[in-house]
Amino acid sequence: MFIGHWAPAFIAATHPRAPRLGTLFIAAQLVDWGFFTLLLTGAERARVVPGITAMVPLDLYHMPYTHSLLGSAVWAAGFAALVWLVRRDWMTAAIAAAVVLSHWLLDLLVHRPDLTLAGSPPKLGLGLWNFPWIEIPLELAMTFGAMAWFLRRHRGPWVPAALLFVLLAAFQAFNWFAPPPEKVDAATSLLAFTAFGLATLAAVWLGRSHTLRLRRG
After folding, report:
1. Range of the domain at 195
2. Considering the domain boundaries, does residue 217 fall inside one?
3. How far apart are CA 188 and CA 61, in angstroms?
4. CB neighbour class for 62 (10 Å; exposed up to 12, middle 13-18, buried from 19)
5. How far is CA 155 from CA 98, 152, 171, in A?
6. Which residues contact 161 (CB under 8 A, 6 or more apart)?
7. Model confidence over 116-162: pLDDT tens digits?
8. Of 54, 157, 184, 216, whose CA is between 20 and 30 Å from 134?
9. Which helix (H) or strand (E) holds 189?
10. pTM of this prediction?
């Protein structure tokens, strides 16, 4: 799951008390921002194992601080606290926390058994990365269906939406079809940070240029 993680951000952004879309884009991938940062320090670890799944050649064998349910909940609570300090609205903070936590739940669908509840076995994962004919249309439908719902509930110029659409499609195509990496190193994290950062900047523009349509009556 890559761009599919942003589907909950689009949906959550239609709530009148939700944080802006850019903030929710950070929330949706916060766990992976943390993972790729900890990967640089060696606190969490991964390695390339060709064929370990049909779609992703990474053995994510040690990530207790980000990809355990407990770890994800801690990240969600911390992010909610920051949002609350800025907005002073518990509903806004709760929406942000839910989007952070959605990351683990969506990963549960696609990962091989490498997720944990609290950093130790049992390891969990339904393994849809081994079934591309299911995972690919599912991720595209989730992401762009959620984006369409966001745009239906908002109004604004089309250019920011088109830019974000193109970026998400391009990043996902690269993720699926680019040659697999030879190893996990600092470049792995920098590539992830670049993709996350560009998508988030485009989401900031989209969120700021669009306003929520008010329901009548």
Report:
1. 3-212
2. no
3. 16
4. middle
5. 25, 7, 25
6. 147, 151, 206, 210
7. 999 999 999 999 999 999 999 999 999 999 999 999 999 999 999 99
8. 184
9. helix 186-209
10. 0.95
Dihedral over Cα of 181, 184, 185, 188: its sign: positive
Element (H, E) at 162: helix 158-177
Token pair, residue 149, equals 């719902």
Which DSSP symbol is given to 123?
P
d(CA 87, CA 70): 25
Count of domains forming the chain: 1
DSSP codes, 58-106: EEEEE-TTTSBHHHHHHHHHHHHHHHHHHH--HHHHHHHHHHHHHHHHH
Segment 13-56, tens digit of pLDDT: 999 999 999 999 999 999 999 999 999 999 999 999 999 999 99
Average pLDDT, integer, range 60-75: 98
Residue 84 lies in a domain: yes
DSSP letter for each residue of 36-66? HHHHHHTSSEEEE-TTSSSS--EEEEE-TTT
- Residue 1's pLDDT band, with cuts at 50, 70 and 90, is confident
Which phi and psi angles does 215 have, rounded to 5°? -75, 145
Closest to 5 measured CA to CA, from 162, 195, 173, 142: 142
